[in-house]
Design goal:
Layout (H helix, E strand, L loop, with lengths): L1 H7 L1 H13 L2 H12 L12 E10 L7 E7 L13 E10 L5 E8 L10 E7 L8 H7 L6 E9 L3 H4 L4 E7 L3 H13 L5 E8 L8 H10 L3 E7 L10 E2 L4 H7 L7 E6 L2 H7 L14 H5 L7 E3 L1
Parallel strand pairs: 7-8, 7-11, 8-9, 9-10, 11-12
Antiparallel strand pairs: 1-2, 1-6, 2-5, 3-4, 3-6
Helix pairs in contact: 2-3
Bound molecules: flavin-adenine dinucleotide.
Length: about 300
């Protein structure tokens, strides 16, 4: 518990430590700026807020490429204000079927830590095929200095609920990576006693977003493993899985079903259908079906993002 609080509020605890060590007015005034230096979250769940794009970078050069978009917060000391695990909403102007102007609204999960100051990053797959995606194409067209609208947070599953289990399996396809990265990075940063096993599926090796970062996490933390699966391997020495995710891969790389385990799933509709069944149209979890059900999991130990 203390460890979690310590990791979350290092500045405040450092300041409190200084007060205890030295005491008195001088240190109190030194402590004040640290407390005052935590402005409110930049986003609101109730109103759209316009933020400026300050950096744009292509992460994969694939048919549907992934881009990183960095947005500045109004104050450089501000945090985006999204607890793990949650996402934000953004919107793009569209022309509706009846010719009137409207908005396409989509959720995205920042890949920056929840306490990152002054900015947040989104990794967005830009859909060009089978036809251009409305919101991702809008983002691709933004130039540094342009703005986009955001709202949030949209809470998903809290890290404290995830941490009630001992073993957590993460299964993602493509940019379904982003919520998994949010959960894994924060759980590892807080030193939570969780065993995390990640199965990450992509079309090709070139499509694997942030592979170096994931490999770095696995090298640094004994309790984090990642197993990559690609539709088609191009190199002969490919160490991961090939084809769609199979029951055997799940059996081998995920925790066993039980009260101490949890599996988080996020991916395109086809993958969700095969592994767990997709969420219902009203965005509720819906029944568990697919390979995870066949392996003995039930609704209490699978969460669909
Ligand atoms: C909780 C959550 C978090 C997410 N986080 C991220 C993230 O961090 N990064 C990210 O890249 N994505 C993320 N997504 C997905 C994202 O919200 C969008 O769904 C995605 O970017 C596509 O939106 P779009 O408007 O660009 O494309 P759309 O206009 O919705 O189209 C997407 C693709 O599907 C095709 N398509 C559309 N309709 C049909 C149809 N009826 N039949 C067949 N094909 C169709 C289009 O041609 C296009 O290729 C997240 C989703 C959820 C639910």
């Amino acid at each position: 518990m203390l460890q979690g609080i310590r990791a979350r509020f290092p500045t405040l605890l450092a300041a409190a430590g200084a007060t205890a060590a030295v005491g008195g007015y001088v240190v109190w005034t030194a402590t004040r700026p640290a407390l005052a230096a935590t402005p409110a979250s930049a986003l609101s769940p109730d109103e759209w807020r316009s933020l400026k794009l300050v950096h744009k970078e292509q992460l994969t050069k694939t048919t549907n490429p992934v881009w990183l978009f960095r947005f500045a917060l109004p104050d450089e000391k501000q945090v985006v204000g999204l607890p793990v695990a949650s996402c934000l909403l953004t919107r793009a102007p569209i022309t509706k079927k009846d010719g009137r102007p409207g908005w396409a609204i989509r959720p995205y999960t920042p890949i920056t830590a929840p306490d990152a100051r002054g900015h947040f990053d989104l990794a967005i797959k830009v859909y060009k095929q089978p036809s251009p995606g409305k919101v991702s194409t809008f983002f691709e067209g933004l130039s540094v200095g342009d703005s986009a609208d955001f709202k949030g947070p949209l809470p998903k599953l809290s890290l404290s609920d995830i941490a009630k289990r001992k073993e957590v399996g993460l299964v993602a396809g493509g940019t379904g990576l982003t919520p998994m990265l949010q959960v894994a990075t924060e759980a590892l940063r807080q030193g939570l006693p969780l065993k995390l096993s990640f199965i990450f599926a992509n079309v090709s090796e070139d499509d694997i977003v942030m592979r170096k970062h994931l490999d770095g996490l696995a090298a640094k933390h004994d309790n984090f493993r990642v197993y990559y699966v690609v539709d088609k391997a191009t190199s002969k020495s490919w160490p991961g899985g090939v084809g769609f995710i199979t029951k055997d891969m799940l059996k081998q790389h995920l925790p066993h079903p039980g009260p101490d385990s949890l599996v988080l799933v996020c991916g395109p509709p086809g993958m969700m259908g095969a592994l767990s069944g997709d969420k219902l149209p009203d965005k509720s979890q819906g029944p568990l079906t697919g390979l995870l059900k066949e392996l003995g999991f039930d609704e209490s130990n699978v969460y669909k993002f």
